[in-house]
Write a structure and sequence with these properties.
Layout: E1 8-13, E2 17-23, H1 29-32, H2 51-68, E3 76-86, E4 97-108, E5 111-121, E6 129-140, H3 159-168
Antiparallel strand pairs: 1-2, 2-4, 3-6, 4-5, 5-6
Length: 176
């Protein structure tokens, strides 16, 4: 993972479930262009986390779940976004926390399928809001049917990713 869109993993049940959070901060560059002010149309800036990055956060959460199932020995890559449905009118604004919950639907030697729910917590008024439903499929690239060769080192679960495990209190697997 080149950019980690998660702050912390708060729950990890091997081959079952993973919950991760990300607090949306004013300091994130992506917010300031999404959606900028348009004075000519009388619109104020509406900084919010782009939905594509929310999907990426879910992919990383589910990828952790799929990778952890085999102690991160497999190179787990996102193969397909089966569904990504967002609640209309609900936005991840600065100051809110995004909670990604991924659940394994299928796990075998070729890859994994996960269903995910995204909620906004720490919202004004203290409510938890449903935000999105996202279904993802992952492939173990070293077990691909075309026989393609990939680098020996695990280019998916990098040192930056391992630091996320450290911050979250999850023991690093042997060899990392």
């Amino acid at each position: 993972m080149r950019w980690v869109w998660l702050d912390r993993i708060v729950e990890l049940e091997k081959a079952q479930r993973c919950v991760a959070i990300r607090t949306v901060s004013w300091g994130e560059d992506v917010l300031h262009d999404h959606f900028p002010a348009d004075p000519q149309r009388g619109l104020r800036a509406l900084p919010c986390m782009p939905h594509t990055l929310v999907i990426e956060g879910m992919a990383q959460t589910a990828g952790v779940l799929a990778g952890h199932a085999h102690d991160f020995r497999e190179k787990v890559i996102l193969a397909k976004i089966g569904k990504a449905v967002f609640e209309p009118g609900v936005l991840a604004m600065p100051g809110t926390t995004i909670r990604h919950t991924a659940v394994v639907e299928r796990l075998d030697e070729s890859g994994a399928a996960c269903s995910g729910t995204v909620e906004l917590i720490d919202t004004p008024g203290g409510k938890t809001l449903p935000f999105a439903q996202i279904d993802l499929m992952f492939s173990h690239v070293d077990r691909n049917r075309q026989g393609l060769a990939f680098p020996e080192h695990n280019f998916v679960f990098t040192e930056q990713f391992m630091s996320l495990l450290d911050i979250s209190g999850i023991p690093r697997p042997a060899g990392f």
